[in-house]
């Protein structure tokens, strides 16, 4: 069968130990192709594999066509294997007490579709992730959006220093980051207009009620006054020799955090994951990074052709994506409001529940806060 190359973009939207990355194939007129999106690490599972079909022009990429009823298996070099359960359409997961990723072991993904087609990844070794020796930041004025004074100009630039375990000289790493900030609101101060007056109407979750004379009375603790929002890096970040010194990486740029009042209410926590990945996964993310860097818009086609490490057992080229086998380690750092070399103006008082302020905000307090 004649091989076909596919041009597509990548959007990273999820960052967690056992979570996968999301590929966005919008804007490209391609035939439907299977997309495989999976990851196994030395973290405790469950591990996730997503199967869906590539999208053409005009398709809604927020609602992809997921592939259901497939048989998805992860196996290791000891002959141990686990068939993943379909947690929801196209989302396959190992059991909580299922197959565990271990440094030094090799892992492979096997897929059988309901129509009889089958696919696989190479048997890749999970290598030790090395160490993030230091995660630090520097304030830089007028360092982003320099051509638009209406947008934030100042930012903290976050860097890392890291080292490998010395087991090989390939230095194939990938980094992912996420940032978390606190949202504080005052739902007990909510009011409604009645004629020419404003009457207090606190939200029930505020813990306040209105007594006679429109007097606020606290009867319980607020359950919607404090939320936390986590945002995720959207770029492929892989190791480059330009930051390599004596086998260690120095001053690797991770992200820029704009100086915005809303994210520095109570500090901003940046967490970085360092993953030692296989050569096949590294080559995939290297091309993804180059694709993102060219032209600045991942939704516009260009000359980069990205091929993953999934192949058809029949030898066709009708599948793409990546199954990463990665040793992972993490490090975090707080960027505090007092690290900003000037004061931030106070913002408006928000009187709605905190979880309504930002999509994805949660009242669950992070363990690191």
Automatic annotation (TrEMBL):
Source organism superkingdom: Bacteria
InterPro entries on file: DUF4249 (IPR025345)
One Pfam family per UniProt: DUF4249
Annotated protein name in UniProt: DUF4249 domain-containing protein
Annotated source species: Pseudochryseolinea flava
């Amino acid at each position: 069968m004649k091989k076909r190359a596919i041009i597509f973009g990548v959007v990273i939207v999820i960052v967690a130990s056992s979570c996968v990355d999301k590929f966005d194939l919008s804007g490209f007129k391609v035939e439907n192709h299977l997309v495989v999106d999976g990851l196994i690490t030395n973290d405790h599972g469950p591990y996730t594999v997503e199967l869906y079909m590539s999208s053409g022009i005009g398709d809604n990429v927020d609602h992809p066509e997921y592939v259901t009823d497939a048989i998805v298996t992860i196996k290791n070099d000891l002959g141990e294997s686990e068939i993943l359960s379909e947690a929801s359409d196209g989302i396959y997961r190992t059991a909580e007490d299922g197959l565990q990723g271990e440094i030094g072991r090799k892992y492979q993904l096997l897929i059988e579709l309901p129509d009889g087609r089958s696919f696989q990844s190479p048997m890749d070794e999970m290598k030790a992730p090395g160490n993030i020796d230091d995660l630090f930041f520097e304030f830089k004025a007028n360092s982003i959006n320099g051509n638009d004074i209406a947008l934030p100009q100042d930012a903290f630039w976050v860097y890392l220093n890291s080292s490998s375990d010395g087991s090989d000289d390939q230095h194939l790493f990938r980094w992912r980051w996420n940032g978390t900030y606190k949202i504080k609101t005052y739902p007990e101060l909510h009011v409604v207009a009645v004629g020419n007056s404003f009457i207090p109407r606190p939200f029930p979750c505020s813990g306040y009620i209105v007594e006679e004379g429109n007097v606020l009375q606290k009867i319980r603790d607020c359950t919607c006054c404090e939320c936390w929002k986590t945002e995720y890096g959207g770029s492929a970040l892989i190791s480059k020799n330009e930051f390599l010194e004596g086998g260690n990486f120095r001053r690797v740029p991770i992200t820029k955090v704009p100086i915005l009042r809303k994210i520095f209410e109570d500090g901003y926590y940046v967490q970085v994951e360092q993953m030692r990945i296989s050569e096949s996964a590294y080559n995939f993310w290297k091309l993804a990074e180059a694709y993102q860097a060219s032209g600045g818009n991942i939704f516009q086609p260009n000359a980069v052709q990205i091929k993953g490490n999934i192949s058809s057992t029949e030898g066709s080229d009708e599948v793409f994506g990546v199954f990463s086998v990665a040793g992972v380690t993490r490090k975090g750092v707080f960027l505090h409001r007092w690290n900003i070399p000037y004061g931030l103006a106070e913002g408006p008082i928000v009187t709605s529940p905190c979880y309504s302020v930002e999509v994805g905000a949660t009242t669950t307090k992070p363990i690191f806060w």
